[in-house]
Amino acid sequence: QVQLVESGGGLVQAGDSLRLSCAASGRTFSTYTMGWFRQAPGKEREFVAAMTWSGGYTHYADSVKGRFTIARDNAKNTVYLQMDGLKPEDTAVYYCAGRRLTDIDSPGGYAYWGQGTQVTVSS
To answer: Where are the beta strands (DSSP E) in the chain?
Structure first.
């Protein structure tokens, strides 16, 4: 069993930056594709970014491409989401997901999930 714990969320102004972290337990973290998803109030959970276990492939939602960067440190069992140029529409609960089962950008495609961290961007 793998546990994922997100941190780093908060309240910021438009244009600011935040870095989210997701710490994973378990020895097999380094073998998993890891992803970030978000869910705004009244909306479905949506894909944000993902990275394969080696870091050799990354995939981003069009809405965050060029502003967000996913990274991982397998030695620390941690995956990061650097968010720059934040916009009010980025406001959501951000979730870390691990161990890809199917589609890399599908909320149903991962086995493990964190509890989420709130990101609020004011205009």
So the answer is: 4-7, 10-13, 18-24, 34-39, 46-51, 58-60, 68-73, 78-83, 92-100, 110-113, 117-122
Nearest Cα residue to 45 out of 34, 53, 37: 37
Both tokens of 29, joined, read: 């973290």
Of 118, 113, 121, 81, the C-alpha closest to 2 is: 113
Q: pLDDT tens for residues 96-111?
A: 999 888 899 999 999 9
In the beta sheet, which residues pair with residue 94?
38, 117
State pLDDT tens for residues 27-82: 788 889 999 999 999 999 999 999 998 888 999 999 999 999 999 999 999 999 99
State how far the Cα of 76 lies from the Cα of 68, in Å rounded to an integer: 21
